[in-house]
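REQUEST FORM: STRUCTURE PREDICTION
Request ID: SP-0412
Submitted by: Lab K.M.
Chain count: 1
Length (residues): 333
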Amino acid sequence: MLGFLRRPLFRLVPDDTRIQFMRGRIVGLVVSAVLSTASVVLAIYPGLEKGIDFKGGIVMEARTPGPADLGQLRGVVSGLGLGDVGMQEFGDASTVLIRLPVQGEEAATQQAVSRVRGALETAAPGTRILRTEAVGNRVSDELFQGGLIALAISLGAMLIYIWFRFEWQFAVGAIVTLILDTTKVVGFLAVTRLEFNLTTIAAILTIIGFSANDKVVVYDRMRENLRKFKTMPLRELIDRSINETLNRTLGTSMTLFLSALPLALFGGETLAGFAWVMLFGIVVSASSSIFIAAPILLFLGENRLRRGTEAVAKPVPPRPAARAAGSVAGPQA
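STATUS: Completed
RESULT:
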């Protein structure tokens, strides 16, 4: 009974799995390049749905006594002449999220908030303002630049770390894969129209860390096998290493996925963007370790990581046999 409990009751893949992943290396790289290119294009046009952190403006959350009449409330607030007004239900039928463009200086912002509060109370007596957020143009630009700098520093730190820990082929493969993963997440934001704000920046940085950790684990096994199997072809060695770490990769990814799923489903609007970006990034990171990072390493290291192994594998030629004493002395007279 104790022996039965010591063994894992469930394994995602058998221990003796021998899937030849490198057969699909070309397809994986081409599909990844196409998706990343499309993601960059979508990020430029139509562009990302920037949140108040990066776009600036005013966000107000209000709760009416009963179900909110969005048409009536939108008409009342639009009549104030504060610019384009965005209004939507937020969580339930009695909670409304109101978005206003930047109003200028702090005094103008406070005046706009007071006017909107008064208009809402007139249209729906008993309305309460739950929260108000205001970000100016200068602050939003600084936050946007800071977010991009944080992403760049994160990628640079990963490059240096992997370069020092492994050979440069591993570092290049990991960083290129992380960049491709990041562009796909940006494309996901552009397609789903989720807000691009500081919360999603935090999700992207978390994904970069998770993806880099997964690739380091796979690369570690490859480096061990490079020392262990000195004559094994690199393509076969990479397939073997991926199969040996497949249970760990899938298990870790599934655990994190199941942790983020409840946040996406029940966390509300505040956490939904972070959670959905995390879910998409987990799937992308797990697949890129196999179909992107490994093929790049194969192409870069096929003639370099195996340098010197031919001499180890090649048998030493036997020395020529010594000639007979008579032949050395020459013909006798």
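NOTES: Strands lie at 49-50, 57-63, 86-90, 92-100, 128-135, 195-196.
Reviewed by: T.R.
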